[in-house]
Design goal:
Layout (H helix, E strand, L loop, with lengths): L17 H33 L15 H10 L11 H17 L9 E4 L2 E4 L8 H22 L3 H24 L1 H7 L4 H10 L1 E5 L2 E5 L3 H4 L1 H14 L11 H4 L9 H26 L20 H23 L5 H29 L4 H21 L11 H6 L19 H10 L14
Antiparallel strand pairs: 1-2, 3-4
Helix pairs in contact: 1-11, 1-12, 2-11, 3-4, 3-11, 4-5, 5-9, 5-13, 6-13, 9-11, 9-13, 11-12, 13-14
């Protein structure tokens, strides 16, 4: 069976009856809600396994009802409103992040064309020619919920957490946008359903005069873009090791410090829905979407009917596991390390990779001699840039004695270098009074 036979296109949308559209919307909402409930349980179980402890195992089989119990507990907790809070914004800020994260699932393709009560319809709420930009816009708007929650709380720590989140979003949004430029160049479209269809076709490229059929997943073809994209979405979702906006060791709980009860539950909901949404977005752009992985793809019926739902959610669960794995493994970065990674590593790597990919794609249309000339020029420019790139030699760190001698006059007094704190005047006076009158001259009174 041709794997492209069941792939939807933009012309397949907009013809569904109202009840089918409503059913798709409810399905996307249920996916987001179950993703949160099971995501919290999954994270606790996986981190418990990594730390050699059981994790939740009392409520329900394998502790599956623990998250539901936590949600009921939050619903009955006292809802505390700070006196200095902006009541309207304080109330609506958590809902902004949840709405943006859930809405982004509307353009994610869950599967191919299927038959629902006799109607042929794609397993996707909707699709537009710029669906990828819709997801990026919604992920950018979600930070407004965090920033406004921090500002409206009327407290210092939430405000600092909100400011950190806005700076972090700007830093990693640029790298995120640049990383998917390569996907647009290769797929030739910004529609999510058509990007998945392009990965199902595979790609044919010319290598030394021979046409070679390559794998379709862009995670293989565009591996640098995939790495930059995944690091960027971890920063976008404020997940460890990039959870600086809610650093409990510095800011108590960051932007959510003053929230309680159901509002706090909404903030947790938005975080886990965003994690599931961005995992599904990664699967769509780089991991073949709902297409079956090899060797399951050798089965002729693997990419038809309802089976692709299983492959899609299997890939999403795998990426959620990577999110949890990072949390249980890596320590939190310092803020300067966070900014340096975004501006000095991810963005330059994305720019260089786009230039290299554009050169290679253009070279496919040229003669071999022209390709060698162009690649030679690009390689020469890269070699010259590597040789003459300005670099500073690290200055030797001054010793402790040099630091003390070079400290400015009138600065705060430093403790003695031998770390022996001299006795206070009162102690010296008491020792002098107890000292016998015939004590030998020069005896150190501190030894008494």
């Amino acid at each position: 069976m041709n794997p492209m036979a069941q792939a939807p296109s933009l012309t397949d949308f907009g013809h569904d009856p109202w009840w089918l559209i409503l059913g798709k919307i409810v399905f996307a909402f249920v996916v987001a809600l179950l993703g949160t409930l099971l995501g919290v349980w999954f994270e606790r179980r996986v981190v418990g396994f990594m730390q050699v402890r059981p994790g939740p195992n009392q409520l329900g089989p394998f502790g599956l009802l623990q998250t539901l119990a936590d949600g009921l507990k939050m619903a009955f907790k006292e809802d505390i409103l700070p006196k200095s809070a902006d009541k309207v914004i304080y109330f609506f800020a958590p809902a902004i992040s949840v709405i943006c994260a859930v809405t982004a699932l509307s353009v994610i393709p869950f599967g191919p064309m299927v038959s629902v009560f006799g109607h042929q319809t794609p397993l996707q709420v909707t699709d537009v020619p710029v669906a990828v930009l819709v997801v990026l816009a919604l992920s950018s708007m979600a930070v407004y919920g965090i920033v406004l929650a921090g500002w409206a709380s009327g407290s210092t720590y939430p405000l600092l957490g909100g400011l950190r989140s806005s700076a972090q979003l700007i830093s990693y949004e640029v790298a995120l946008g640049l990383s998917i430029v390569a996907v647009f160049m290769l797929a030739g479209t910004m529609s999510t359903s058509e990007i998945v269809a392009a990965q199902g076709q595979g790609i044919t490229f010319n290598l030394f005069g021979a046409d070679i059929q390559g794998p379709g997943w862009y995670a293989v073809l565009l591996f640098p873009s995939f790495v930059v994209f995944f690091i960027s979405i971890v920063g976008e979702t404020n997940r460890p090791p990039f959870d600086l906006p809610e650093a409990e060791s510095e800011l108590v709980a960051g932007f959510m410090t003053e929230y309680s009860s159901l509002k706090f539950a909404l903030i947790m909901l938005s975080e886990y829905v965003a994690m599931v949404t961005m995992s599904a977005f990664t699967v769509t752009l780089f991991l073949g979407g709902w297409y079956a992985p090899w060797p399951i793809s050798l089965w002729s019926g693997a990419n038809s009917g309802w089976w692709p739902l299983l492959w899609f959610f299997g890939k999403v669960i795998l990426l959620v596991f990577v999110f949890v794995w990072l949390r249980g493994t890596l320590p939190r970065l310092r803020y300067d390390q966070l900014m340096r990674l975004g501006w000095k590593v991810l963005i330059p790597v994305s720019l260089v990779w786009i230039v290299v990919l554009a050169t290679w794609l253009k070279a496919q249309d040229w003669e071999r001699n022209d390709r060698l000339v162009v690649l030679g020029i690009v390689g020469g420019i890269g070699l010259i840039a590597a040789l003459f790139w300005p670099s500073r030699k690290p200055q030797p760190k001054p010793t402790l004695v040099e630091q003390v001698e070079n400290r400015p006059q009138g600065s705060f007094p430093l403790p003695p270098l031998d770390l022996q704190v001299p006795p206070s005047p009162r102690t010296r006076r008491m020792v002098a009074e107890r000292e016998p009158a015939n004590a030998p001259a020069g005896q150190d009174s501190q030894e008494v």
